[in-house]
Every structure is written in C-alpha cells, then in structure tokens.
User: What shape does this take?
Amino acid sequence: MNELMDKFNWVVKDTNAYLTRWKKQTGKKIMGCYPMYVPEEIIHAAGLLPVTIFAKDEPVTLADQHMHRYVCHVVRGNFDLSLKNRLDYLDGVVFTDFCLTVRMASSVWMVNNPQLFYHQIFTPQNMVGDQTPQSLTRQFVRLKKALEDYTGQEITQDALSKSIAIYQENRELLCQLYKLRQANPERFRARDIAMVVAAGMVMPKEEHSTLLAQLIEQAGALAPQQAEDKVRVIISGAFCDFPQPGLLNMIEDTGALVCDDDIFVGRRLFNTPTARDKEPIQALVERYLNDLPDPNKHNPDNEWVPYLVNLVKETKAQGIVMLVVKYCEAHQFDLPYLSKELTAAGIPILIIETNDSGATEQMRTRLQAFTEMLISRRD
Assistant: This one.
C-alpha cells in the first residue's frame, strides 16, 4: 500500500514532471480544466487528457502583478503557476463560471498565455428553471463543437459513451474506497485520501482506476484499527481548492478523526453518477443538475444543509470542520445561514478560513478547542 501511496503523492506533488513525461511518451495533448463543473468526458472523448488545474501549497507571487489581492488564492495560484512556466504541458484551458472571479480569470489568462486553446462554459445556477436543461445542453454541445474544431476530429456518440463508462468506473471505485474509510476511518489519513482523489484529477482515468483497484484490495485486507479516544468529524467546503496537506494533518493531529468529507478534492468529485444507458450529452446534463448542492446552485429540492445533516447521521460524525477559501464570496454569503441551521440541528461547526499562507498556529489552537468541545459533548 505504501508504494501505491508514493505514486499518488508523486503525481500530485510533481504534476509538472509527471505530465511532461506523459505527454512526451504518448504524444497526446493536455487540456486544463478550471474547477469546477467541466464535463471532462467530452474532452476525454476528443482524445485529449483533461487535467484539473490546482493552486499549489505555496505563496502566490507573480500573479499579484495582474490580479488584485482580494482575488481568492485558488484563482491567483493557478495563474501564478502559468507565469512561473509550471503549466507548460497545457495545450488549452476550459473555464467554467463558478463565480465572477473565474469569469475574470479567463480574460487574464488569454492575454498572458495567447498560445493556448480557450473555451468557457456558462452553467446555469437555477436548477429548477424550465429552460435549464436546454441551456446546459447547448453549452455542452458548444464545447463539443469547439473541441472538434480544435482537434479536427469528430467526437462520436460511441466515443462519448466509452468515456462516460471509463469515468463512471472511476467514480464507483472511489465510492468503494470511501465505504472502507467510513467503516474504519483509522485506516486512512485525511491527507492520504485527498492525495488519492487529486491524483485521479491529473492522471488518465484508466491508469488511476487500475491503481485505485489495487489500493482498495490492499486496504480491505488490513486489520481494523481502533481509536476510541478520537471524535469523528467531516470536512466540508474548500470549493475549487485542494486543502493544504498540512491543514488536513493538523485536523487529525489535534485529536479528531476525519470519517468523510464534502470537498471538491473528495466526495464532490464522484458522488453523483453519470447514467451509461442514456444519450451521452443528456446524461452529462442530468449529472450536473442532480449533483451535490453548493452555494452557486439554487434547488429547493436539493439543499446543502439537509445534505450535510444526512451525511453527519450516516457517518456518525460529531461535528463539521468547514474550510472556506478566503475571498470566496459564493461560500461566504452562505455561511451565516449554514452555521445557524447546522447549530439548530445540533451539529457543531468550526469555520476555518484558508489562503496561500498554509496551516497556522491560530488554526491549531481553534482546532484543539473544537476537538476538546466535541470530546466533552461525547463524554
């Protein structure tokens, strides 16, 4: 199991080296995907490798010459990597419109990296609107046409169906891994789980699924471990972001046990399946419409608070650590309501604001106090 984790860690920590080597070996092109919402299956069906662009766990420097400091570190950090020539393996970038900041970022990228292919998807926020499915269908078809023009190759229905099957197999394997984690959280550190998921956002899904199946087999053979003195928590939030490994370690080092998550580099990536027996574009549209709730989606029948309450009950967690990217307006607007409703439901919540400065001792103090409070409630 250690060898597999070393592989996942290397891919995430040295993405540049991994993808540069992969590109040289295969001769294929790589398409960067801005978090979140990009239908990667369409890119995969075009014969390209979809790769999520992550901000690294390091200070942002060069990007501050082009973007205001009140832009979140996710957007600044991604662009910073391009200015430092650490995304030179990219042949293009597909943007979404998760927030107004991401919309702005696409223009800045185009000016400073004009050699790349660019495309922006405009996703609806009203999940129950009469025109929502048709609007999103047009956006996905528009992406398909743009990629066909770029590659000079038609993206067939058969190719789309095969890509959907490959991605769905990967999601199902991740679901199996998370079931093992729920049953015995002591088996995995939160940091290790995040690394496994993040590696799959960089590697070809076929390769990742092969390694993932091996990891599940090896982890399932391990004897259960006990940690009765620790409290079970869920980490949530961190939209578009890869939480710093140091912070994930800090959460567990203060006496908590992460038994599940609700983050982008986690359950949000794979929780919602894509139907294999429907017209491909329709299946991708339905997945988006039925995906987990977040601050940018309005759906009275699929709200975030009830989802979190159910996840807490299902995992027998004692509390939630909510990771909020600094300057993420979409998330911050939801926080007062979210905190009020979870507290009313009897679920303690700790809100941690994150940026490019990494884990701090102030965070450690607050996490220790939160863990002690959860222990006192349990006892």
Summary: The chain has a mean pLDDT of 94.
